[in-house]
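Hey,
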Amino acid sequence: MDNQAKQQWPGPAGLIPVTSGKAEDANIHNRNFLDHILVEMRVIDAIEPDLTTEIFGQKFSSPIMMPAFSHLNKIKNKDVKPMEEYAMAAKEENLLNWVGMESDDDFGNILAVNSKTVRIIKPFADHDIILKQIAFAEQHGAIAVGIDIDHIAGTNGKYDVVDGYPMGPITLKDLKTIVEKTRLPFVAKGVLSVSDALKAREAGCKAIVVSHHHGRIPFGIPPAYALPKIKDALAGSNIKIFADCGIESGYDAYKLLALGADAVSVGRAILSPLLKEGKDGVIKQIKKMHAELSELMMYTGIKDTRTFDANVLHY
């Protein structure tokens, strides 16, 4: 972000106060922050944009990606599996698919759909589980793997326990060792500071996801707020910067892309359509978001996903 954009961007005191809900809920601050980013018009010379995006050496139709969901129940009135349904949507729309905590068997069934998929693994206290799941992902065609580095603490102030599995710390040394064990691009998911972004780079990660994991941290800053500083800190490196949390429309996606994200994951915006209509509901929602993203790119003179400009944003 250049000096002009930095000058118009607010400091911490400029964040919008919570007007309803629990003050510690990071999702409320995230929604308020996104809604108070305004956009100027630059329509002379604007053209219909190209949404094609390159990630990990492969071309996708859009910078909008499927989320790293886990353990979803059956779709209403249908005997089908949601995790496989949204993988099918990703394949049909040529989007990068992400998968969260799943057994190897279930993950294998998702990969069998043949969508290009990233496997995100929990920070298990037993690192052998992490390494085994990475090896399984490699053997079955995942295009990248990573760890939810933010899924450490539980609400009791102890290490979290997920589905009976104890979570544990991931030190910089641990992260380096794990990254070195795989030939796939490695992703640190749950980065919300320059500090963690720089450590992820030092560990050899090929990508980070700027995220608070739908509000895991109380009073967490919005990913959109963290993005410009992280982007600046990683300037000159080849690390991909992804972002998520509260992206409900193509307009939200535009703001995060303009602030420095290379691509964004959409979670809860597709969850309801997924659980009601399966693959078709997801595709319908994604097409709507693509139209919104393209619309705002045209209004601001952005011709493709490589030429976003944070200077069109105002607080």
